[in-house]
Amino acid sequence: MNKTQQQVYDVIIIGAGFAGICQARHLLLNLPNIKVAIIDPRNPERSIKDLKIGESTVEISSMFMCKELALHEYLLENHAPKYGLNYHWPKNQAQTKSVNDYYHMGFNRTPLIDSFHINRAKFEQDVLQMIQEMGATFHNGRVVDVELTPCDQLHTVTVKLDQASIELKTKHVIDAAGRRFIIGKKLNNVVLDSEEMTGINTGSAWLRVKNIDLNIFDNIYNKINGTASSYYSTKHFFGTGHWIWVLPIDTKQKEISIGLVHHKNSIAAKQINTLEKLKSFFKANHEIVYNLIESGQCIDFNYLPRLAHNSKQHLSQDNWYVIGDAAQMFDPLYSPGLVVTALGIECVTEVIRAKLAKEPEAEKKQDMYNKFMVATATSYSRLYQNHEKHLGHASVMSWRIYMENMFWFGNLVPMYIGKWFLDFHFINEHIKAIEFLAGPQNSFFSDLHQQFDQLVECDANLGIMDFARTDQLLWGYGPSKYFDNFLENSRLDPHQCNVLLCLKNTFFFLAVFYLKLRFKGFGIWGGFAPKTWIRVTQLLSYSFYIAIGEKIYRFKVRQLNHKTFIEKMRQEFKTYQYQPKLHPWN
Ligand SMILES: Cc1cc2nc3c(=O)[nH]c(=O)nc-3n(C[C@H](O)[C@H](O)[C@H](O)COP(=O)(O)OP(=O)(O)OC[C@H]3O[C@@H](n4cnc5c(N)ncnc54)[C@H](O)[C@@H]3O)c2cc1C
Prior knowledge:
Elements lengths: L2 E12 L3 H13 L5 E4 L19 H10 L3 H7 L1 E2 L3 E6 L11 E6 L8 E2 L2 H14 L3 E3 L2 E6 L7 E6 L4 E11 L6 H5 L3 E2 L10 E9 L4 H7 L12 E6 L2 E9 L4 E9 L11 H11 L1 H8 L2 E8 L5 E2 L8 E3 L13 H21 L5 H21 L4 H4 L3 H24 L6 H15 L5 H14 L28 H4 L9 H30 L1 H27 L8 H9 L13
Parallel strand pairs: 1-2, 1-10, 2-7, 4-13, 10-18
Antiparallel strand pairs: 3-6, 4-5, 8-9, 9-10, 11-17, 12-15, 12-16, 13-14, 14-15
Helix pairs in contact: 1-4, 1-9, 2-9, 7-8, 9-10, 10-13, 12-16, 16-17
This protein binds flavin-adenine dinucleotide.
The site of flavin-adenine dinucleotide has 38 residues, from helix 1, strand 8, strand 12 and helix 9.
């Protein structure tokens, strides 16, 4: 094979899937003169074969695409909006024809932060084109080897093109090649053993259907309060050892994505790994989903036998990085795939920026952001622990979803908006909090999961805890409450997004949630047991500890508040005078 060329880049990205193209665009937008190469064997004209999975976005992944990648208008004009999230459990397993046969929680409305259902083939084709126009070099070939070198020496990437092979050199190499785990396998960096990932042992089957009967959606939700189109919401259906997604991915052909995640101890792969078997499963257990499929034409079918994996390291001091599916994936419930990808991309860009600028803190950033990514990915793995036992139990699972949403809106979303995850001090505190909440032993999550196990075993009914409502804890609280009003008040001033205020309140309401769970689930003796009050005291102490940090933070930024965009406008406005007379125009 001829080695015909040798080129040197600042950054080489292996893989032009979602993670690779987004990383390239983020680098090009933030470091205008950077020399980026991106490599992928697939034809840049993406076809039906490229109907990849990972279509639903949530607040963080949407904000990343809209603001960080400046793609808001593009998304509005080319992809389907996401108007809410709905969860369903059958009232009687033998009757699942209509939504009235299901218990339901969730909402249908335009969200505060725009979210989208993206058509991945279209997105990848369009953004690949955009980044080439911005100056990235696209090599349509396959990476066959990466020679990694220590510290700041140049790495070598060997690419097999159609007729030849080329060798590229780079200071920074990013593995965004998904489940090929190019760096993961080379350095034994990838974790595939389910035992090392809290026992998650899942597979997934999915399909796309076009020209579906929209009346099925109208029949689903019109009677349930909603202020937006129900077709454009994400719907989830649950049962023992599995959950299902139904969501739109095309605005013109009425095309939807339908998929099932199954825990293999409950549902074996061989029971659902063909289209016919999957349809039979739906017909028997979720007839409404079966009818939806039968109302249109099936476009594809896919089965992935193993979903979960993780990486020991995400950012290395030797200038290699793993992002997207190459780094981690656990379970698509809550759509964390693109969220963790977005966080990883922003960390990598900031490290490369600091490295190229030869900033003294660059290596510390590499180390700290790696710790942040490892801790965040690992905490996500704990989010799915014991799912197999809980998914099908409507009452227990609704409590679990409620609690997990408290962290999403009360911690992760404000953390992202205020860019707190790039702050060293916050990262240290965040890692400590993760240990307390989601550590392997005696953590808050493991305690709750054990209690949920007990409640499922004794078939308890604690009522449905609807995460979309605000009338179940104290003072009109609901998990999606933004304490800081940062969406309204921190416009263009991210330092005003006070994540500590959100965390303080979240921990307080967690204590209330915990008390309610103990009394409802375990009766008066459970409520007054020492265990309950020890945990409540821990949560309130954490809330108090964060409250002190919050006051310190407020004190530190008090000067900055006078220099903000809003403050400047207010000052200018002091000289405002009404001018009723129009300027002559002809
Ligand atoms: C069933 C399921 C449902 C999911 N649902 C969601 C969801 O709703 N929301 C969400 O946020 N996430 C979801 N995810 C996760 C999401 O799909 C992934 O996070 C995302 O697709 C990862 O994109 P990626 O670019 O890292 O990988 P990929 O999309 O796999 O891209 C990898 C690219 O690398 C290229 N490549 C491979 N080998 C080489 C090589 N040797 N040289 C060069 N290039 C190479 C490939 O051609 C490909 O283009 C889901 C995942 C699964 C499995």
